């Protein structure tokens, strides 16, 4: 559900089961702890300087933006949409991604949900 002034938002269950274009804006330590396979990692603070990296993503579908719980990704989504991208915030972030049983890869074999 979208509210005026809020960026477009989708829950994890609304995302495509495969071939989803995911941008993870968490910090390096959060990314290393566990992330979605195939996601692009650009920490929120680096996004304006690294936005050109998004050009390699498919331009025929939205970029789903994720963080730990949805706050940073909402800011990134708003900025991206204002900059001409088609971006959607992932409600609940990686916590919801993990809770929904979506795949997570990381530097550790067993990813505890509290660090996502």
Automatic annotation (TrEMBL):
Claim: Aminoacyl-tRNA synthetase is one of the keywords in the record: no
Any GO MF annotation of the entry: transferase activity
Domain Rhodanese: 16-106
Superkingdom, taxonomy of origin: Bacteria
Record key words, sorted: Transferase
InterPro entries: GlpE_sulfurtransferase (IPR050229), Rhodanese-like_dom (IPR001763), Rhodanese-like_dom_sf (IPR036873)
Record-linked PROSITE patterns: RHODANESE_3 (PS50206)
One Pfam family named in its UniProt record: Rhodanese
This protein's name: Sulfurtransferase
The organism of origin for this protein: Amycolatopsis bartoniae
Lineage summary: Bacteria, Bacillati, Actinomycetota, Actinomycetes, Pseudonocardiales
